[in-house]
Amino acid sequence: MRALLVLSIALLLPFAAHAGDVSAAARADTEVPIADADVLQPFVASYRVYRGGKHLGEATMQAVNQQGPRWRVDLVMRGTRGLFGAVGINAEQSTVFDVVDGQYRPVAQATVNKSMFTRRQTVGTYDWNAREARWQGDVKNDWRRGPRELQDGDMTGLLINLAVIRDARPGKTLDYRYVDDGRSREHTYVVADELESVGAGELSYTTMRVQRVDEDTEETIVWVARNVPTPIRMLQREDGEDTYDLRLIEYRGVE
Description:
Elements: H1 2-12, E1 31-32, E2 43-51, E3 54-67, E4 70-79, H2 83-87, E5 90-100, E6 103-114, E7 119-127, E8 132-137, E9 148-149, E10 154-155, H3 157-167, E11 173-180, E12 183-191, E13 196-200, E14 203-212, E15 218-224, E16 233-238, E17 241-253
Parallel strand pairs: 1-14, 10-11
Antiparallel strand pairs: 2-3, 2-17, 3-4, 4-5, 5-6, 6-7, 7-8, 8-9, 11-12, 12-14, 13-14, 14-15, 15-16, 16-17
């Protein structure tokens, strides 16, 4: 079982990209306007990761078209000064999914979370014929192993980030069902009425601020631009304190 789990994670997380390897698609001190919604496109994006305004490390996010409707999206965060392990933010996430009638349907996922002393890894599978999801590995308890019933529109956290880019319009409310790492729950996001200018590296983007409103002690805000396939910024807080703050440096499309 352990060997199978490690192999599954290796297959789901093959790219091990570094943020420093990504070159910008374009460089200019210009305002990038919001464009019409785009079909999902392959990309690689690099971010700087902050907590409380302090730079902790780098992150890479990418979407890869594997074949036909089958895709994979990955997010890898790495510390630059050995701090990620100490604060528990060193993480790798990956979701394999199909694009079905414009919707993102998960097929499998892998999550690896590391700290200075621990390593937790899980693999989930989504069986749409049986309409159930199951997880194996370092699951916190047997209840989280599943099976959990699948409903049309269910997505992992990574897929919700992509769906927000696809769906956001000023003033719109977005409802999703999150099924990830042995948990399922409703997520509701509200898109701000007003647009915001957000800097990313040498560029400035006209963005939509999208905030999750069903959280109690946690706060999630994503800034997206309709002509950019990856979030411009992703901020999560807990009890008023930053958990992580990912700020886009640059991105490029992939042929």
